């Protein structure tokens, strides 16, 4: 379940209470008159079944609460209550299948922001991939996959396309368009320094290697990207975030970027271009599959987007 807190003008409180009491998926309703200071008004709290959340939030936004007050949601880990059990039982649908669209837009918007932290993680993951390439270490390649933060912007792009939130698409596109070149430039510098320091020689890519799958583009490259994108979006929309780890270690986005840089620095332009192609195939495949999952789920959850601007903090 989720804990809902609404700050609203006193003139809207009765309508908010009506929305919450009439929906079978809500319980533990509390009204605190006049306690809100900024913005001034009342506070209404309730516990709400996840599968009822999208509909209730849409109704509250229809009352203008998101403009004249505020709506917050928090995850409840444990609820020992017969009333809560009834609310979850009476709410239409299943909690694992429920999409809380506003939560999804907010989450992907935060994870797609271009900032120092995003660039640092992406650069570190590309450097790890480069180390995995020159040492022929599949374990290090897997580590680079896990560290890479690129799924956030890719998921945000899919959400933005499906919900027609082009501000979200622009933010995600900017993070990817700036993040990967910056990370690859830093990795190129590291590769040059590593070669100059004698950590490896220009024959590091010669012959067959365990990690050659990173740059070899084929039908399975797209298939894996599609499956990973679908699994990743299912994980995000059903709050089963543990499955995201499996997504991270199944696609060769960051490893392909790292391989492309190493191959370019060492003069193997064929492998470098193939790695870039691998990167593009994975990025596009993930977005397509993630958007397809959202399109299928939208057929059941059709409440309109509140259209709130993305946070910039």
From TrEMBL:
Keywords: Membrane, Transmembrane, Transmembrane helix. It comes from the Bacteria. The keyword Lyase does not apply. The keyword Zinc-finger does not apply. Pfam families: DUF389 (PF04087). The chain crosses the membrane at residues 116-135, 141-162, 174-193, 213-234, 241-264, 276-296. This is Putative hydrophobic protein (TIGR00271 family). It comes from Herbihabitans rhizosphaerae. The lineage of its organism: Bacteria, Bacillati, Actinomycetota, Actinomycetes, Pseudonocardiales.
């Amino acid at each position: 379940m989720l804990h809902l807190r609404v700050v609203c003008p006193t003139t809207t409180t009765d309508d908010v209470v009506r929305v919450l009491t009439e929906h079978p998926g809500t319980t533990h309703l509390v009204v605190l008159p006049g306690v809100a200071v900024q913005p001034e008004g009342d506070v209404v709290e309730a516990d709400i079944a996840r599968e009822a959340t999208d509909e209730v939030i849409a109704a509250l936004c229809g009352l203008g609460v998101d403009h004249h007050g505020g709506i917050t949601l928090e995850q409840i880990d444990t609820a020992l209550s017969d009333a809560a059990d009834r609310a979850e039982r009476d709410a239409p649908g299943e909690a694992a299948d429920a999409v809380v669209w506003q939560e999804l837009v907010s989450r992907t918007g935060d994870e797609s922001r271009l900032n120092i932290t995003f660039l640092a993680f992406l650069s570190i993951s590309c450097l790890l991939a480069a180390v995995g390439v020159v040492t022929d270490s599949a374990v290090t390649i897997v580590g680079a996959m896990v560290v890479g933060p690129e799924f956030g912007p890719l998921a945000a792009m899919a959400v933005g396309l499906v919900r027609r939130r082009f501000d979200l698409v622009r933010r995600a596109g900017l993070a990817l368009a700036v993040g990967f070149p910056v990370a690859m430039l830093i990795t190129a510098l590291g590769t040059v320094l590593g070669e100059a320091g004698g950590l490896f020689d220009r024959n590091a890519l010669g012959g067959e290697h365990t990690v050659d799958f990173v740059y070899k583009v084929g039908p399975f490259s797209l298939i894996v990207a599609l499956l990973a994108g679908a699994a990743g979006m299912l994980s995000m929309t059903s709050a089963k975030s543990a499955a995201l780890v499996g997504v991270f270690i199944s696609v060769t986005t960051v490893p392909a970027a790292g391989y492309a840089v190493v191959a370019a620095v060492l003069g193997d332009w064929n492998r470098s271009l193939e790695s870039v192609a691998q990167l593009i195939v994975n990025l596009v495949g993930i977005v397509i599959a993630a958007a397809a999952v959202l399109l299928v789920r939208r057929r059941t959850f059709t409440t309109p987007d509140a259209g709130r601007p993305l946070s910039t903090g």
